[in-house]
Amino acid sequence: MLTADTRRRDFPSLDGKAYFNSAAEGIPPLAVGEAIQQYFRDKQLGMDGRIPHAAQWNAAKALTAEAIGLTPDEIGICSCSSEAYNLAALALNLKTGDEVVVTDLDFPASSTPWLQPSCAATTRVWRNRGGALRVEDLIPLLSAKTRLVTVSLVSFYNGFMVALPPIIESVRKYSPALVAVDATQALGRVPLDLRGADLIVSSTHKWILASHGGGLVGVPKERAAEWTSTAGGWFNLEDAFGPKSFETVKSKPGAASFMVGMPNYPALYAIRAGLEYIRGVGVTNIDAVARPLVMHCLAELRKLPVEVLTPNEPEHIAGIVTFKHPRAAEIHARLHDANIHVMNPSGRLRIAIHGYNTAEDVEQLLKELKAALG
Q: Listing from the earlier edge strand, what are the strands of the sheet with 178-182?
């Protein structure tokens, strides 16, 4: 990653491949595979294995806290981002008359809990204009009834990266709402400043190069009361096996309430290794190398007969660029045959550029794309 030697050493599966699909599935370095193998060796110890399991769990929390700007006590790790948002919905316990604001650039995990018939709140949609979310369009949606504004830091759909400070400032000024931020498409790829966010969620199998089965949750201690989930379980409870366990239960506060059962230790080993690897390389270094590739790719796409969906606003661009074309499926197949891997969700070709991508990768992509377009 970042040099030919480290790329060859840490990501041997990328040899001869131009991989631009980290926004869906990151390619883990060998260190992550070694961590998962270590889990198996520790698991073979039986109950004694729970000692190294706990050490990995604590290390994963500490690394997550460092990455998103919180403390380890403000971190929870559940099974996926979807579970995190469903547990968040339990914590809020919204009533008739409450309102939630979602965006039309968000992944379903962060928006659909509030759209289910079981949710009593009214959902209002902050709609994009030209692929961008404008704060002036959010303000009219805010009121004394607004309980939550949920937004992706970087949109999975077109790569638009919001400016978080003005969003938080507007929410605080015009409503009593909490702000939830999905950092999935940013964590491990761009430097983060998540100050002011009340809930931070991320999946683990994309840019941080870990495995499936993890949902990172950050709850600042001053917001622990608002984000204490009332889910059943045991790991999330203050005293699950006490003398009154069949009379009353009490959830641990904040992020700890999102860890409802036995931790997914194989994923935790992978999360620890992935975050440790990213920290070792440095997110700032990753962005410094990958961002010019993103900007060059976007500039060249704008010269082609495609509908570019990523706004041409450098300050709002992270690692993803997307475009549409009537022959998207055919183009996707041709690129795949050339061992160039992009995403093709519903006719939208998505290019995600990480630290293991090179200038040669991008030129190969553009060459094949131009040939496919005729």
A: 75-78, 215-218, 199-203, 178-182, 146-152, 99-103, 122-126
